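Protein in question quoted for reference:
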Amino acid sequence: MKRLLALFGFCLFAQTAHTTPSINIGTVYDYLDGDKSTFLKRVFNGGDSTAFVKVNILEILYDTDGKSQEVPLKTSTDGSARDGLMASPARLIVPANGMQGTRLLFMGERDKERYFRVRFVPVVPEKEDEFAVSSEEREDYKKTLSAGVNVLAGYGAVFFVRPKQTRFDSAIENGAGTYRIRNNGNTVVVIDEFKDCSVKNEQDCQPTTKHHILAGRTFTFEKQAGRHYQFTMVEGANSKKLDVKG
């Protein structure tokens, strides 16, 4: 009898465990070039039920010490439009095993680089959420979700808006024990796939990392004897592979 109950419980779990949306936003870092004003961001749903996704945007501000804070977007001086990044649409209905896209549109001055946090948050639709569904459809959707599911996993991306007049100027200093890259330009430089491995043992590696060098800042690492450092420096559409020995 216990085995039968256990089997019944497992079958019930198997039927309900996957009746939730599961979204994927692809890359978590995106860049809007100086000659572009819109960017298409796709949201994938690998779950077994429809995903109702709200897109929320905050601006990331950095102080002189490099500390950041996320603040709501401001409206323009005449109050007619938002100053910053907008999502259109800001409400997505993504079918199971399907995809939908939203266009990220920048409105405002492009004299300096700006940064935004774009959050894609799956929700159980309510009337005030402004999704284009009826009350009956909302209730039916709630009934299809797995029992006991209270939190739906969302994702956040960082969006870099480059200045209209983009300028790259990276200064490299390969010292005896220290390696530095100074960003003297006006837009972010990406250090991609940074690898730190032993020269003698290729399996002895630190986790591969990614770094962003904001304008006016420096990326530095200490060179150690017997270590091998490899990475790609990305300046917009141009990339350069670098190889450094400790």
